[in-house]
Design goal:
The chain is α+β, with helices and mostly antiparallel strands. Helix content is about 40%, strand content about 25%. It has two domains: about 1-100, Arc Repressor Mutant, subunit A (Orthogonal Bundle); about 100-153, no CATH class. The protein contains seven helices and four strands. The strands form two sheets. A two-stranded antiparallel ribbon has the order 1-2. Strands 3-4 form a two-stranded antiparallel sheet. The longest helix has 13 residues, at about 40-55.
Length: about 150
């Protein structure tokens, strides 16, 4: 399914960035957060953000972000520039439905990835996976010796 969306929208980076914003509609993201969360290159991220901003899907926004200063754990709040989803984007709901559609092959892929994170005791799927956009949790995983890095991907 991801390959189809990649071909449909032109690039894998665009699909990842669109998914980030569509499924986190009220969150502000700066460029570093977008690169880290969507796992795309800085060049691709800047290019796709510019394109999504031009079509009206994203709005530029400045917001405050906390930065840790050194080892003494002191935190400083700084104003940074970033983007947020424009909730008035006319194709938002159809786009959300298209990006949320999970094919049976994708379900198998998710199960395969979850089997590599550690000894699972419980997996609860809700929210995004059942198109409940107001849910606070999409995936709850309980287990022993879970590998966070593997789980994050």
């Amino acid at each position: 399914m991801i390959e189809v969306l990649e071909k449909l929208f032109g690039s894998n980076a665009k699909v990842k960035i669109m998914r980030l914003f569509v499924f986190n509609p009220t969150d502000n993201f700066d460029i570093n957060q977008i690169i880290e969360r969507s796992k795309v290159t800085p060049t691709a991220a800047r290019q796709e953000i510019t394109n999504l901003e031009k079509i009206g899907m994203l709005k530029k926004r400045s917001f405050f972000k906390d930065f840790a200063l050194g080892r003494n754990k002191k935190v400083e709040r700084r104003r940074v520039s970033g983007w947020v989803l424009d909730e008035t984007f006319e194709y938002l709901e159809p786009l959300r439905n298209l990006l949320a559609h999970v094919s049976p092959e994708r379900n198998k892929e998710i199960l395969k990835k979850l089997s590599r994170v550690g000894k699972l005791k419980l997996v609860i799927i809700s929210g995004f996976f059942i198109q409940n956009w107001d849910s606070r949790v999409d995936l709850l995983v309980v287990g022993d010796n879970l590998r966070k890095g593997t789980l994050d991907t």
